[in-house]
TrEMBL record, chains A, B, C:
Family: Belongs to the glycosyl hydrolase 42 family.
Protein name: Beta-galactosidase
Keyword Metal-binding attributed: yes
Residues that coordinate or bind Zn(2+): C107, C151, C153, C156
Sites where the protein binds substrate: R103, N141
MF annotations from Gene Ontology: beta-galactosidase activity; metal ion binding
Reactions catalysed according to its record: Hydrolysis of terminal non-reducing beta-D-galactose residues in beta-D-galactosides
Xref: Pfam families: Glyco_hydro_42, Glyco_hydro_42M
Domain Glycoside hydrolase family 42 N-terminal: 6-378
Cross-referenced Gene3D superfamilies: 3.40.50.880, Glycosidases, Golgi alpha-mannosidase II
């Protein structure tokens, strides 16, 4: 278990370093990330290098038993470099330069930048490849954050044209698949193709829009690969990672992770300014990150204080750092690095708070971290080698998310909010979920949920048919099958290629106004269920109805259907279910598909308390996490030990304090 | 009666064309519009033409008895043309190019564009002038839509300077009439004059602002005239039209229509995303379009499905297409072309729904259209030669609307909303209204309503005095007479030149805060009437008071006045009346001016049902349109036949179903 | 007492001038401001001057006994000048030119502009230096209004680099104090330094941001000084002023006023579109302006009608002009010039209403002004030499306000709103306040209030310690001491350098969500007091608690503390107090610091009536101003005479009408 902190020695007088290292060690820390924004200090002027300070801090950390993850500093090219090559700056849709003074002020496709990257990364890799204290590398920092994925400069335009040529070969093929005949947009030459920049009205060809997003994502992947290759050349034994951003969607993280040794992400559970944080959001992003490489991951930046640029976000209450840390671990984190050690005295993030306040003294958050450090030492061997084990998966498709970003269908509609609403069900019911790519193998799962799967390749369609035929349960919902992978409408009656699998046709459809809903009836239930946002007018062609619209001109037509296909079952949801109906439908789906694992664990938790497990060959570690500030009654059907405190918990009700966490090991099995 | 659809053969495989033509014919269609965005297909490269496909589809349609309206493709110049002449792109207020990728990416004043237009239009006109299947031409498409009327490029700046020189002759005259002495803005040379582009604060000289709007509108008119002249040279026998946009106000449609043979507009009754569509809005726009040339018109694009760019708007319910169609006809449409035949599989409007869904199969909307087609065959000879016959008119002044756009006076104030609130009264009370230009002849009307007529020429003032003197009833309201035609304030006590006609002075005035209102008393009425948005402090000088403010420091002064002048009467309204008071006042005005025609028709309709008539020499066609989803009781005082169904309706109450329409012919006269 | 109006003779035919002058005289006016936007009329073409019309109007005014304040016309350089030197235009953050067509279209650092200014100002100054009718000069007009302080052109970039070199000398010092090591922003050369313009994310280095604001403010001061020096060279006997804008914060008015003979500001009490105007806002801005030079001031533009650009603001009700006028005088105005004489018939401000309506006739507002003119003649000798005399002061720090503008900490937080909430207490309780600079002498005051004093120089800290030690009462609140004067965080436990003075440490802190509050208890009070926006977790180190948080994890820790230090007392407020708690706390502070003067005046006013005094050597003038529309009962404990009406007011209750004003002189002393 890696346990540590992000540290910026270049921000502090060297005489303080020793104190910091000692305090870290006393808090049980064994790793630091350093260097990822330090280019100015490493190469103050072109070709003038100074690695001596970096040598000294790495040595110092190593002496204290703290290993180092080194960041490459390419997120912040220095001013001397930018002044020599101003063409490196990104440009926005209007052609404005996105200039110097913040960070990430570079274009991924700028040829001028590549030699500088090569040099600085080679210098670092060659110097520290053999340092025993350097365990891993982080490439750049948060690719794409603050809308820096998509650039509209001339270099990007040319690179996009080349990318399209590579993809389509023939420009007529591109015209055909994009449908540029619409509004007279046929391109005769690759060099004629535009970026989706400023036009009289902001509505570009959907095929071009989607390809541009794919291209921009690929540009980042290519940019990262240059650095990975350089590092691996010198340091093949040191791991390479990048700190991704969970639900951030501008870069396809499945692609970005392929060449990485381990996936990482930056976890700020309360970065949003909201009164009530939904802990499912962090849980989901952990699961997303775990799904990237199908194995455990690191949290490279883990919130330790109130974040803040010019505005401050909420201050973590006592117990929150510890609670968030165990949630991370419960979902598969094998490394926790807090962001950051101490509040910086200057710079754009001087309000981004840390373990230590600006005064550098031990305080509440330091003490809480220290407690976690001690607990982790106690449970390290238990955690070692354990992992989550899910039989259900949600499919996250960046391409589909982009298609909805380009065309949300519904005012203020969010693909991710909808995705989250399904995830929420599983979170609330303690059902472990994997979040996987549509290109991943489906065969190990019992249940697959694909939300808003408007585009699908033939291969995906075939594998989904095969999955259900072989006994799997599949959930599809509105808009499934409406488009092909080029973001074109299918000339088929909906749900298009999924019609046979789902046993329905969708004759009509439409949006609902704002918060409008329509009543939905479920046989045997008197509740006033509701569908919102969208309606499909479904005609069953073999499927049976699970819920029926009870209002408007499509009253009587199904809202949810179920179709036995082969050995499995395919479900279709033709509206946005309210949470009560969602729970009712998914309860049935979960039971039928046999994924409702945790509920049979012998541990019963009330609402607000999360139950999640990591499994080792021989045993299960049950994390019970109270996300509320109030004590909660936990009903135990067996006898357990809390690994963190060593305390034994008897059968019956035990009280878990507000913000409290247990890591339970079964001593005596539940009765059932 | 033209009945048909907008069709894009270039979007579909040629082997489908036959099916489409057959299905159209079976639906009773006799016209299609084609070609208006097809430049890329007609001239794929400069000077390389391919009209063969257009020949084939026109021939095919002709064979099916379907006539063709050909669009000129100038709304979407191809990429090869734009790459050769990038100076054709419009520019925004900041100088940003409004680039390629949507449509309407050209400046009306770009000299580079004119030769290309000339060539493509001549090619088309010369080729199809003698084709028996081609009945008419549409110039370009929706001039100005998506804010493409006003451009800020250098060509526009120069053209504006030339336009000003043409208007004022002498620059001192322009300085005087604009009042450029204010803030030291005197221009010494024409070439010094600026466009109302980006400044430190967005507040330009009001005279310059208004002239720029006039210039921009004139630029469109001039642009259109080039094409009309070319077509008329080859095809003087084929009608020329343009699809305008109802209440859209950037181009003066009175001017734009002058050279057209027939006016057209695009009618999307539910393009707005609102829960309750007000059917008066479409009615008003029909009346506006009829007023352009003072005769019947075409609906060139008639909504047939949910519209949608990236967001979808509401799906029409069963019966809505039919209902909308008859409303259009009732207000004077002699041509209905649905937009569009089939949902496009690609492009920026792939979500803009059509008669056929993307799957191309017959469905609910096709069947509804077909029903209308059959009914129209039945009533064609009745409709032939019939027209609306109004004795009341509202005056729509683009110049005044622009003056209020430049200076709305009141936060979020809309000239058109206010205009609509008066129109609503007449709509609700079944009183047929014409909507005319202030330059039109007033003498045929009994009642004229001029809302917010802040600017007037001397000629208009004189004709209004003459109109009232001769026995007409005139309604003016707040801000009347405050400015001259140059958008300058009059140095007169308000209502300026209208003071004698109205018999009042307005000593003071002001806005009301947001939703604030002031109580208004009407003698003999106990209701709590209200005025909002604005107050005038009126002193009668011969006029009598119809309603009096009962609150604030101007309590006791009139809110509405009435002044007998010559044989007629001039009314003045000094605030925004609430709907109850508006109805009370206009009831009296309508009765006194003898325009309340329909109420004496023998047909009584409840709220939500529209009653409107077209008149032939010998008979009246009464359209009864139920705009609600509920059945309505219609009280008939005579015996009628519904021309659409052939059903006879006895005296007394008959039930009109939700979304239902009758076209009633009197068989036995009402008792009165 | 100066009493007059802003007049634009160049807007009106010369034959009208005589009428205007006569009407002004009849209204008791003795001063006009003219010429400040007249460059086009004075120099229609480069080098062609015409001062004849200005001569004539000055002579005419002089003949009528009306003195002239001449404006320099530099706010509106003519078009011929801008066309010759387009580099003079300001540029925005994206590099867009902020072009011609409004006003203030120039950059303060444009070298091209300086020769033109020099010439026109010298021409004016030399011509009118000896004219007996010209009493004073106004430089330019409202520096910075409509966001024209900060420019992003190349001239500004260079000027900023030079300014920085002047400030820091050594670029390493600048890097150190800004902390440019953060995100690799170290500058090697002055010419590398950027303006805080467009970046990928709008978050610049806080040190750079603050220095840029200081630089921009200094640029204005420098720009003004050029003109002052020119005028003083010719006309050292004529006063020089500038019309500032009260709470407007882009220019440091303390610096801007240093070289002025008298401070002026433009007072529009109801420029905001709000239902209920808070009269404390105008009062505060009067006090701010009086504080600039520590003596009486002029209101150069005083609202006389509804303002309006494209939107109109509320029309003043009868009595409001008079009431506002006396409020201005009560707070120290020795000059009142209404804006403006007559509604302009043209130009961007044709809706900005005036004493006369557009028709130029005497009306309600003229008559009200005339009444004031008559009253002022009566009380002129009394007012002569009188001034406000406060023992309490609030410290307004532009630097601190800028620091909060750059980093508001809290969503939608406003330094000025918070400042105002403290001012409101003193306003409501009739306690005269000065508003002074942190560089001013503190020693004459009994109470100092410093809100959000996040930055302080060592000198300020020392003087505050000395102030309290010597017996003063000091109020500091949250964020005090958190930063040094470079906008860097202090590496000290909060409240940093103020810790000893306040006798506390602040261990933690944070924001509260939106309208969230936390309960606060005060011993001996049962009220449910509340703190909002921010919380400090305070540990007393000698201070005593005045109020204690009663909620959340910091329940029990003080919200407000009091610390006796030397002979004085230092208070600290660790949250945003609700108004009830604010009043409770400040009541105690006011009583203890002996500043609650007016309450002992013998005049008792209800809520909504303002009580404020000007003091002469031997007597006090009590202004009693009824800011409501309802009559108010005023309880008098002595016998008074109302100087305005000459009416004698007996002991007991007298009724002051709505919008009414008294200027009371004590005839018989109050009983106490």
């Amino acid at each position: 278990m890696l346990f540590g902190v992000c540290y910026y020695p270049e921000h502090w007088p060297e005489e303080r370093w020793g104190t910091d290292a000692r305090m870290m060690k006393e808090a049980g820390m064994n790793v630091v990330r350093i260097g990822e924004f330090a280019w100015s200090k490493l190469e103050p002027r072109e070709g003038e290098y100074d690695f001596s300070w970096l040598d000294r801090i790495i040595d110092l950390m190593t002496e204290h038993g703290i290993r180092v993850i080194l960041g490459t500093p390419t997120a912040t090219p220095p001013k001397w470099l930018m002044d020599k090559h101003p063409e490196i700056y990104m440009r926005d849709k209007f052609g404005h330069v996105r200039g110097f003074g913040n960070r990430r002020h570079y274009c991924y496709n700028s040829a001028s930048y590549y030699p500088y990257i090569t040099t600085i990364v080679e210098k670092l890799a060659s110097r520290y490849a053999s340092h025993p204290g350097v365990m891993a590398w982080q490439i750049d920092n948060e690719f794409g954050c603050n809308e820096t994925t998509r650039c509209y400069c001339d270099a990007c335009k040319l690179a996009f044209q080349v990318w399209l040529q590579g993809k389509y070969g023939d420009i007529d093929a591109m015209n055909e698949r994009w449908g540029t005949v619409f509004w007279s947009q046929i391109y005769n030459e690759w060099l004629e193709v535009v970026l989706p920049a400023n036009t009289p009205f902001p509505l570009h060809n959907p095929g071009l829009e989607l390809d541009y997003r794919r291209f921009a994502s690929d540009s980042v992947v290519k940019f990262q690969k240059l650095q990975i290759d350089l590092i691996k050349q010198y340091a093949p034994h040191q791991a390479v990672t990048h700190n991704m951003m969970g639900a951030f969607n501008e870069v396809d993280d499945f692609e970005l992770s392929k060449e990485l040794d381990i996936a990482s992400w930056d976890n700020y559970p309360n970065l949003m300014f909201t009164r009530d944080v939904n802990p499912a959001i962090a849980a989901m992003q952990h699961d997303m990150t775990r799904g990237l490489k199908g194995r455990n991951f690191w949290v490279m930046e883990h919130q330790s204080g109130q974040p803040g640029g010019n505005i401050m976000f909420p201050t973590p209450r006592p117990g929150e750092l510890r609670r968030w840390t165990y949630q991370s671990i419960a979902h598969g984190a094998d490394g926790i690095l807090y962001f950051r050690w101490r509040g910086c005295l200057f710079g754009a993030e001087q309000f981004w708070h840390a373990i230590l306040q600006h005064d550098g003294k031990e305080g509440r958050k330091y003490n809480e971290t220290k407690q976690v450090g001690e607990e982790l030492k106690r449970v390290a061997s238990l955690l070692e080698g354990s992992a989550n084990a899910s039989r259900a998966a949600m499919v996250r498709s960046f391409d589909n998310e982009w298609a909805f970003e380009i065309q949300p269908h519904i005012m203020n509609y969010s693909y991710m909010d909808h995705f989250t609403s399904y995830y929420q069900y599983f979170y609330d019911h303690g059902i472990g979920m994997d979040i996987i790519s549509p290109n991943d193998d489906f065969t190990n799962y019992r249940l697959l949920v694909l939300s808003n799967f408007i585009m699908a390749t033939d291969d995906m369609v075939e594998r989904l048919y095969a999955f259900v035929e072989g006994g799997g349960s599949l959930v599809l919902d509105y808009r499934a099958g409406a488009k092909d992978w080029d973001n074109r409408m299918e000339p088929l009656t909906l749900p298009g290629k999924f019609a046979d699998l789902l046993g329905i046709t969708v004759e009509e459809y439409g949006v609902m106004y704002k918060d409008d809903t329509r009543r939905i009836k479920v046989e045997g239930h008197d509740e006033d269920y509701r569908g919102g946002k969208w309606f499909d007018v479904i005609v069953p062609r073999g499927a049976e109805s699970m819920a029926v619209f009870d209002e408007d001109y499509y009253a009587g037509s199904p809202a949810v259907t179920k179709h036995v296909y082969g050995k499995g079952t395919a479900y279709y949801i033709g509206t946005e279910l309210d949470s009560a109906l969602r729970d009712l439908i998914f309860n049935e789906i979960s039971i039928c598909s046999k994924v409702a694992a945790h509920r049979g664990s012998g541990i019963r938790v009330p609402h607000g308390v999360e139950l999640v497990s990591r499994v080792k060959v021989d045993k299960t570690l049950w994390f019970v996490i109270n996300h509320t500030v109030k004590a909660a009654d936990i009903l135990l059907d067996g006898v357990y030990e809390d690994g963190l405190s060593g305390r034994k918990l008897a059968k019956g009700i035990s009280v878990l304090e507000g913000n409290g966490v247990w890591m339970l090991l079964e001593i005596e099995a539940p009765s059932e």
